[in-house]
Amino acid sequence: MTCITFKEAATDGGTVNLEEYTASVTGYISKCIDDVTVSKTITTCPNQKPWMTAEVHMLLRTRDSAFRTVNPRKAAGPYNIPGCVLRECADQLADVLTDIFNISPSCTVVPTCFKTTTIVPVPKKPTVSCLNDYRPIALTSIIMKCFERLVKSHIKTQLLPSLDPLQFAYHSNRSTDDAISTTLHLALTHLDKKGTYVRMVFIDFSSSFNTIVPQHLIGKLSLLGLNTFLCNWILDLLTGRPQLVRIGSSTSNTTTLSTGAPKGSILSPLLFTLLTHDCAAIHKFADDTTVVGLINKDDESAYREEVQELVIWYKVNNLYLNVDKTKEMVVDFRRARQDHSPLAIKGSSVEIVKNAKFVGVHLAENLTWTMNTSSITKRAQQRLYFLRNLRKAHLPSPILTTFHRGTM
């Protein structure tokens, strides 16, 4: 696909109308998907261009990788362009999409069709009794996801490796295992001392991505050293976003949003971690947040003060704590244990529990792995039971394999 025809049609007086340019390209791709029924693989051996340096080769590989790493099983998004089209037609689509990707940051404008989001409510549990029992899944443009992967890689190269050492998400060589081991090591090291105990509060946010204020986020990105063009591009990405809700074949009216970040996008989790980077005294994995209080001689004043300062920080940054879902766990190995008074957040007491879930792992107040192991074993037994029943029904191996990969 050549970009010249589309670009010329969208150019008026020497200025490219990015909205019209992008809409015509995506519309043409959608038409091809509907019309074309025969696929053919063509191998080409282009001559090496004189300007094809090693650096250009690397950039092209990065671009092509963004297309070819698209998961074809993911939902097609608002404009019904499936991921398999980008994977199989990467060579044909690369030129025109690269041109759009280059124009967009230079004029700090994200095409509206790339920002459009379709929300599909998915039940959180088998029996639904209220709207809060639904999880809103955001379906965004597959093409925009490719673009965001490139921007995400660029942003990460601009950040210091030492930024927010207690944030374990979206950093090289960090994972949930590091978050858990660091938290437990800190607690166990402190508990080796005489007359000590540990209090952990596991904080729950209400729609953390939806409450992001773009202008406030951009101010923090500027302080981190991201250039003005990139900051303004991100601001345009997060503002003026058309959004609609789809249930079955029915859709709602479109609403334009200028707050929050779509949870289904590639950039949103990284942007959230950058928003919270200056809250460095807590252990974080994306929006999973834990405060570890190291208590000596029953003096909890510093711990309680830190929690209250954290509550104020959340309010300033427009993040909302869900006190009902926020839990606290006390790890106290002393022989003469006393009752511990609960934390108070926004006038409500935080429930003290004997076990809590942190980044998918069950932590118990005695810091043993019994409960977590039992939970994993029980879940595996349930999945194997379903798998055995499917096998008894003589379902073919590919379906059994798909079920296994999707549930285990």
UniProtKB/TrEMBL annotation:
PROSITE patterns: RT_POL (PS50878). One of its GO terms (molecular function) is methyltransferase activity. This is Reverse transcriptase domain-containing protein. Residues 103-350 form the Reverse transcriptase domain.
